Automatic annotation (TrEMBL), chains A, B, C, D:
Source organism superkingdom: Bacteria
Pfam families: ThuA
Native source species: Diaminobutyricimonas aerilata
InterPro entries per the UniProt record, alphabetical: Class_I_gatase-like, ThuA-like, Trehalose_catabolism_ThuA_prok
The name this protein goes by in its record: Trehalose utilization protein
Domain (ThuA-like): residue spans on this chain: 7-224
Length: 247, 247, 247, 247
């Protein structure tokens, strides 16, 4: 069952913010800080922590993950620096029931590629185009109370083809001023875990300060939270003893 | 958002129970009565009412439907007696966001056929076979806390091909002692509304007294409840004024 | 198995072309004529016929449908004039295996609404915006050899939310100069039949003279053709005699 | 477009057949030999070759894969001996458009796990139960001309939960004499490639000599063959130059 109090971990590589002044100016507390601050008021009483690449085990120890209902993931410049061991640990927890929300350039993270089984490549250009995020799943919990469309004044352009498996649910489609379209919000189930990918958000633009983006992410956290018992996804070779006599 | 207090209406044609003594012996309060009594303790504080074919407007007035989060539907002998006007009314509410759970022989109800767009036919025989209901969606809220498999000692056999659109989510698959299989639990979205079909349950067998069936139905009610604002599904011809200037 | 020689029927209400001079100027042979002429060279040897609303039984007799592998459907001004009996006949053939391609304003045709189970409503405005049709399913037979994107210089704008069940396969997404997006190519299976909806095409613009649109429609015909035996979709109440002894 | 002449490679680890006499007695030409011989007459003129683990690069060189439309994969005892480099090569070709059919215990092969993103675990016991394979997708090309159900007199039992992503298309469901059910035929798209998993088939039973199994596999080959241009699935970082001026 849903926990009384959601436990959320916002992970960010935190590289741009600590090495580029113009990014630090946009996100003085890091993108993880902006996201955590933005969703907190919308998730009454949730326990929200952050973790970054530079921490031991990237801040994603067995204990932290076991104590996390939903993990958010932002990465870009340092995908290759994420330890394979941590990726496998995160994957194991997702398959066991932990929710994961993958953000923007996280499409190329090891964990997302592992969960999808495809290249996860896409088309892009960075001209600060206006992005319009359209709701194609009214009634879906992730779109509850979200404006149609969300208007993001400036954002990097992502375009199709986005090489992911067909989503279980397509939630948002974006258009950009240059005419491109992108499946910008989509969900998949993997094992017992729920995966939500949401593309708006880039280090150069203040997208994670946008109230509507906060609303989507908070809704996403609630949607991705485990709905049943968390289990260990160890591969099960045990003989199935459920043989029944014919009546 | 989810209502504080779920409002549930259990609809039953209530024909077998009122015309056949051996059925009335199994369901002295009607199948609707057994279902309502079974799910109530699992839906803390939900407001659960029943309605039947014999009532004016089959008990499904505009007011009742507007005040219903999730409607359960059992029909068999009298599908043809359900007024088209009431069927259209129910459909309108489903498309606007009301959840609906269609039970067993309800696969041939007017409302289910209208929502599916197919014949909804299936194979069947009635030999009181044992049915095993297997969970193929662990982690799905409808399977939360449900035994694997659910063992139903005697039940009518339903078999494939079940002529419905590919489910959005396949939740349960049943086998029968005679070797048949059936997609016995499946979900679809239609408009803003959620549809859950669950096949176990027949007037001749005490399936709706089975605690595990109560658990599935209570979970189904929670799952099918509206997750966003209910709307009027009137066909919208209004010009879309959302034109944006290029940045 | 696929027929050696595909049999295609292009149906058009043919009202705008016969009552409005400026439409007749764009489509002197009717939209059905333009479509038939456009796809013929791409479907080597296919037998392509047309049918219109004004013909007896709208040209869609039992014999014509039994002799049709794929039916294309364009309607707009006269949806209400299509006889319910013909709609049910078409539906029966689709469920039995005949393919159907529903075009543009056909989203509000009786047959499409019946097959979908939803309102099929959408947002629209008509300002002659440029439409870009993006391929989100490379490798799908419907997109084989199609340019990315298809550029349609002027077209009516269709926008989300498009109230249809989640497609089995999403093939194209369009953007419009005004910033709207639309799921412009999508497929569903209903019974044994395949359904393809493709939105580009409007009576006021020469979209059905566009070579890339011809390519999509020809691919669609090949995709929607029956892949197995056509059957009568009569509701089957026959007892299933497939009971097996336990080994 | 489909090739005139399909090029098929049947891969088998070929370990049981070469190390256990009772298996060699069932499959004197190896399971790959039985499969190749069985499907050849049904794929008029297809070029069918075999490859095994013991060959250099397991017989799956860049050249062989580039010249293969559909690869069939049987593995069990030696999943761990398949070189990671070959697995990545196969994956690259699948994402680029090559079809793959994964057989029985191949559910635990490296390539299947990589493509699925889940554990691919399942329940099992080996008591030689009768398996009934039911068609839940009549009209699907994979089920064309296939008996309902396929009766396999003796086979290893596979049971749910089968930990794979929800299939794009569920084609077959099996029941076993002991009451278990299993999603025994399912499809997914990954990149431009099509994946078909079919569970019947075990080294101890003559399942790959069964004419109906030959029919399913031949249909599967035709279905999984590329329907568009094969591409290199290299991750694309190129700037998208498709910017359009507003009309």
């Amino acid at each position: 069952m849903t926990h009384q109090r959601l436990r959320v971990t916002v992970w960010n590589e935190n590289v741009h913010e600590t090495t580029e002044d113009h990014i630090a100016a946009v996100y003085p507390e890091g993108m993880h800080g902006a996201i955590a601050a933005g969703i907190a008021p919308l998730l009454d009483g949730a326990e929200i922590r952050t973790a970054t690449l530079a921490e031991p085990e990237h801040g994603l120890t067995e204990e932290v993950l076991a104590d996390t209902d939903v993990l958010l993931w932002w990465g870009h410049a340092a995908h290759g620096d994420v330890a394979d061991e941590v990726v496998e640990r995160v994957k194991r927890h997702v398959l066991g029931g932990m929710g994961i929300i993958v953000l923007h350039s996280g499409h190329f993270s090891k964990i997302f590629i592992e969960l999808m089984g495809t290249t996860c490549s896409l088309q892009w250009r960075d001209d600060g185009d206006r992005e319009l995020v359209w709701n194609v799943a009214p009634g879906h919990p992730i779109t509850d109370g979200v404006e149609v469309p969300i208007v993001i004044d400036e954002q990097e352009t992502y375009g199709e083809f986005f090489d992911v498996p067909a989503p279980d649910e397509l939630v948002f489609i974006s258009s950009f001023a240059g005419g491109e379209v992108f499946r910008s919000g989509a969900t998949w189930r993997r094992g017992r875990g729920k995966v939500f990918y949401f593309s708006p958000g880039d280090q150069r633009y203040p997208v994670y300060h946008h109230p509507q983006v906060h609303r989507v992410l908070a809704n996403g956290v609630r949607w991705a939270a485990p709905t049943g018992e968390r289990v260990t996804p160890e591969v099960v070779h045990a003989t199935n003893e459920r043989r029944y006599e014919r009546v």
